[in-house]
Structures are given as structure tokens and as C-alpha cells.
Amino acid sequence: MLSSTAAPDNGDRRETSESKNGAADRLPRWPIALALALSFGTAFWGIAQPEFWHDEVATISAVTRPFPELLQMLRNVDAVHALYYVLMHPWAAVFGTSELAMRTPSAIALILMSGFLTRTTMRWAVSVTGEGVSRSVISGVLTAVLAAALPGLTWAGQEARGYAMGMLACVVALWCFENYLRGYRRADLLGYGVAQILAVGFTMYSLLVVPLFVLRAVLAGRKPGLHTLMAAAGVGVAAAPLAVLAYSQSEQVAWINRGIPEMLQRMAAQYFFSPANADGHWGGIGHALAPWLALLSAVIVVVGLIRSRDRGLTRWLLAYALLPAVALLLARIVGMQLYTERYLAFAAPVVVALLALSLTTLPSRALRMVLIGVLVVGFIPSLVGQKEAEAKIGHGYRTAAEFLGDPESVIFMEAVDRSLIYAYPLDHPIEDPMLAEDRLSSDTLWGINREGWMAWEVPVHGRTAVVSYHSNEYHQTVVESLEARGCSVTGHDASTRFGITALDCSG
How far apart are CA 87 and CA 90, in angstroms? Predict the structure, then answer.
């Protein structure tokens, strides 16, 4: 059964809890500084090297429009990213939309998260080990190292999406809740509620763990349970409009088509232990190692659970890490398609805490060092893979933009292909004959295209490019129709998510 580290009414146990709280108050802060430094290194190392991929360019398209138009767009698409877009809108206006500029806020969020996580884990270690400050310091160092190395966490710090900010909000919510259980101060519970609301704003699936906070508070006593229930209700009320709007836009995830076996395989191999959306040589090695690292981590956590002096807390953390995945598996069983592993990234910090706490309970320092060494070495290929140019599933927006050059006319076969010039705007206006309605007036990310058959007839002149998704079966047909009208092909590239054919139509 789950239990709480909060003080019960029994006098002896209250005295024990107070001694633990005293130990928690005496914890040194240098492991936090270590966590910040290590996470700074992995977050900013190679941050601009990977080329943009589709989701990051969606962010660019959203935040580079006037603010009223952004709010209008969110009524139609991407409501689940509304909070992130609103924050990124002024940032992009000041710092631009380069890879470094767009990913820096996520890197900062990840660095801050590592500090909060290290401090929170050190407090948990007082209960889990029952040995006071020395073991807590060990847990802090282990948390700092793992937070800078776990691939399922580090990738979010180099992603122009809201996942890292969601992690930060979730960890702050955990930190505030732990403070509340130590002193039952309403300000701490209010802080938890605000942080949890922000977490849901950045990553909606974090709403799935809210009942766990209520359960833990109920086990601490009737009064904290009631107060936490009220806070959870406030989170639910605040999140309800977003949930309703997001549900109305659920067609956006209709592309997800994974059966239970594939979901289980991806959860085991990619959930936390390999780079999300990674291609390339090192990314492939990371994927191959991931199941073995996951297995080793599972064994470490089981041993940690057995050796824990506060198994209720350990079980609670394990439930936090696993409940969202179980919920999405159940949703798939009843016919809903909701899962892709990055949606559950908010739980990765708790996996770091579980591993750090479990390693801290081991009696042998040598064994602890060997295991943390094996994990970190095993994570290195994934960390390197996240820095490769083709890391983000080979979408290759920068490569495609360089090949596109400076055309005068561009036939975008699908509206989403227009994302190429939103990621890397051209320095001159172009003819876009397939555009029926632009992205601002249509309240969409990419605009609305004319009927596909019109690609055969639209007028073009001068340097012309045909751009499509690389598997578009009509791409070559359009190129041939242009050749029949006197254009000549000057180049073709299909090494990215795009198929691009350059033509000279000046004749």
C-alpha cells in the first residue's frame, strides 16, 4: 500500500518525522550547483547542430504571427501548445528563430529543472535511506549526473517545443507538494496547484498524475487529504477549458496508428532510455542499447524498492512514472490513439529520482559506482546522437532550404511543404501559385492549398521549384508537365523529408 512520509498524529512517529525534516533542512546546496553545471553542459552542447524538424517549425509558424492572430489560430489547431506558444511569441520577436534561439528556452528550463529535482530527491533520500545527510548528498550527486545524462530527458532541452518547460513545472509541483507535506502550509499547496496547472498547460498528459497527489495526501491525514483534493479540483477546473478545446482538435493526432505490441516495445525501448526522434549513426546505437539499459534500470529500481526505508514513497514515485503509460495503453485498448513517447516526457525526472534513490540504498559504494558508470556510458551514444545534424528523424529543413536556394516561383504540392520557407524565410517575395489562403487569414499553421490538380496548370516563371513530401506520387508528373511547357530541370534533391526539383522556366 502507498504510504506517506508526512508526520502522523502518533507522538513517537511525529518525533521521527521532525528529525527527518531537520536533516532535510541541513542538506548542503552544492549538489544543486553540480546539477545546474552538468545540465548546462549537456543542454547547450551542440544545441544548434540538429536540423529543425516538423514540430519545431510548427512552433516557428505559430509564434511569428501577430499575437491576436496567434490566439485566433489556437481556436483551430495546437491548443495543447497554447501556453508554450504564448511564452515563445515575445522571445522569438526579440531573439529570432534560429536553431539556437528557438531551443534556448527549453535548455534553460531543463537546467532549472535539474536543480529543483536534485534538491527534492535529496529530501526524499532522508526518508528512503533513513541515514540523514550523508546519503542524501550521495543521492543529490547521482541525481545531478543522471539528470544530465538520461536520454529520455535531455532531448527535451534541445527541442523547440514545450516538453522541457512541462518537466520543470512538474518538478516544481513535486517540490512544492513535498514542502506542503512537511509543514502543511497553504502557500506550499497553492504553489503546487499553480505549478501543476502550468504543467498541464505545457503537457496535458501530466493531468493523469494529479490523483496520485490526492492519494498521498489522504494517507497523510484527513485534513491534508481534503485540502489537496480541493487543490486538485482547482487544477481540474483550470484545465477543463483547455481539455475541451484540445479534444475538439483531436484529429491532429489521428496520424498515430500504433497497436498494443508496438506501444509496449516503444515504451520499453524509447520511453526514457533512447533519444526521441533520433536518426543517424549514434542514434541507432542508442536505440539498440536502450532495452538493455531499461532492463538494468528496472532491476536497480526493484532492488531499491526492496531496500527502501519508505517503500510507500518509492511505490508512489514508481506509480508517477508508470501510471500515464498504463492509462494510454488502456485508452488504446478501447480504440483511442493517443500515444507517442514524447508526450510522456514529463515523467522522466521522476525516473531519474527513482534511479538515484535506488542506487543510494545500495550498501556497496563500489557497486554503486559501477552501476552509475554503466548507465552513463550506455547513455553516451544517445547523447551524441541527439547532437547529430540528422538527429530529428532526418527531416533536414536546413539542408532542404539550402538546396531550394532563391527561387522566384515555388509550387508547394501540400500546404505543409510551405513550412520550409517559414523555418528559413527567403529574403525576397516569391510567387506561390498553389496558395489559396494564407496562414494568417485561414488560422492555420501552413495556409490552405488549391485543389491538387491545379499544380499541373498554375503559372510559373523564372527560377522555379516544385516542393512536396518526398513520397508524393504526383511530384514527377508536375515536373514533366512543366518540362512540356518549356521549363528545364536544373537539380533534384530527396535526401530530406522534402522532394525538391529545381527548374529554369525563363524560356
Answer: 7
| Burial of 408 from C-beta contacts in 10 A (0-12 / 13-18 / 19+) | middle
Measured CA distances, 283 to 256, 261, 430 (Å): 22, 22, 37
The length of the chain in residues reads 507
Residue 463 near residue 428, CB atoms below 8 Å: no
At residue 46, what are phi and psi to the nearest 5 degrees? 65, 25
Please state, in angstroms and rounded to a whole number, the distance separating the CA atoms of residues 425 and 417. 13
150: left (phi over 0), alpha (psi -120 to 50) or beta: beta
Helical ranges in 334-364 per DSSP H: 348-360
Handedness of CA 177, 183, 184, 188 (dihedral sign): negative
Q: Is-contact 160 92, C-beta < 8 A?
A: no
180 close to 188: Cβ distance less than 8 angstroms? yes
- Whether 120 contacts 147, CB under 8 Å: no
Could you count the other beta carbons within 10 Å of the beta carbon of residue 185? 12
**Read out DSSP for 167-210?**
HHHHHHHHHHHHHHHHH--HHHHHHHHHHHHHHHHH-GGGGGGH
The single-letter code of the amino acid at 379 is F
C-alpha cell read off for 226: 481534503
Query: 316-335 burial, b for 16+ CB within 10 Å, e for fewer?
Result: bbbbbbbebbebbeeebeee
For 237, what's the count of Cα atoms within 13 Å in the CB-facing half-sphere? 8
Q: How far is CA 356 from the centre of its chain?
A: 21
Cα 20 from Cα 503, distance rounded (Å): 73
User: How many C-beta atoms surround the C-beta of residue 412 within 10 A?
Assistant: 25
Average pLDDT, the chain: 91
Task: Report residue 224 as a C-alpha cell.
Answer: 491534508
Phi/psi region, residue 477 (left: phi>0; alpha: psi -120 to 50; beta: rest), is alpha
8 A C-beta contact, residue 467 and residue 478: no
**Residue 6, C-alpha cell as written in the block:** 508526512
H and E: helices and strands count for the chain: 21, 6
Between strands 409-412 and 462-469, the pairing is parallel
Q: How far apart are the first and last CA of the chain?
A: 79
Q: Residue 475's closest CA among 424, 426, 413? A: 413
Lookup result for grid cell 513520397: 471
Question: Does the pTM exceed 0.90?
Answer: yes
Look at residue 2 and tell me whether its pLDDT is greater than 60. Answer: no
Q: Taking a C-beta distance cutoff of 8 angstroms, is the pair 184, 14 a contact?
A: no
pLDDT, tens digit, 9 for 90 and up, residues 24-70: 567 899 999 999 999 999 999 999 999 999 999 999 999 999 999 99
